[in-house]
């Protein structure tokens, strides 16, 4: 297999010769190069490889095929779906099962579709491919977007659909770029403040205690990030233990002490003003 340096050299040479550098074109002209790029671990990808080669993706030469070949009869078509049904009595999804790497629509038409697909991260490849799905997933990850399926489908659902088509679903695409879907699920749960069982609630209470954060229901429901509310912990505590006091007891904490703890950060000295009001009565 080619080394990274050899790959970069080959890419620069192709660029000097003004050879097309979009993924589907390179897969036709130099399939071994694409294969080598996607075999690099940790995930590298074509986008990053071009960047490392000092090439501006926006200025590469692009080549798109205006037809594709029917794998059954070898004839060229722009769109295979109708032809498959009419000529071969084969449904498009059956055809794709028989020829997993095949496409139903030619690159030129697919590129026209993709130009209409307006997303937070603009498209840089002219049309979808198995590799572009990975590059795009990796790019969102680099930009710090939440990658868990539950959140990501709201961000760029067309990428999730492409991952379903070209890979065995979103999680397979995540694994292919070196992410662990299970870890992402755990993170998503934490961010949603969902506690899955009693033990997790107890851990959450002890963690708060360790951080010196208040444990009374009012403090937990604070929405201000700096004051570190944690409504999910309260909700889960009540759900699993029947009441918040029971949850505190399970964590070895006396609920009375929690409820009596003085409120911190008053601007006036604690106790002074309430007394003064009483004196005036
Ligand atoms: Zn045919």
In terms of topology, how is this protein built?
Layout (H helix, E strand, L loop, with lengths): L3 H13 L6 H7 L1 H9 L5 H8 L15 E2 L6 E2 L3 H8 L3 H7 L8 H9 L14 H13 L6 H7 L1 H10 L3 H7 L4 H11 L6 H13 L6 H4 L10 H11 L2 H7 L4 H6 L11 H9 L1
Antiparallel strand pairs: 1-2
Helix pairs in contact: 2-3, 4-8, 8-10, 9-10, 13-15, 15-16
Account of the 3D structure:
By secondary structure, the protein is mainly α. Among the domains are: 4-59, no CATH class; 193-260, no CATH class. Helix content is 57%, strand content 1%. The chain contains 18 helices and 2 strands. It has a two-stranded antiparallel sheet. A hairpin with a 6-residue loop joins β1 (68-69) and β2. α9 (149-155) packs across α10 (157-166) and α13 crosses α15. The chain is elongated. The protein binds zinc ion.
Radius of gyration equals 29 Å
Name every ligand kind in the structure.
zinc ion
For the sheet with most strands, the description reads: 2 strands, antiparallel
The helix/strand class is: mainly alpha
Q: How many strand units?
A: 2
Uncertain spans: 266-281
Principal-axis shape equals elongated
Give the overall average pLDDT. Answer: 89
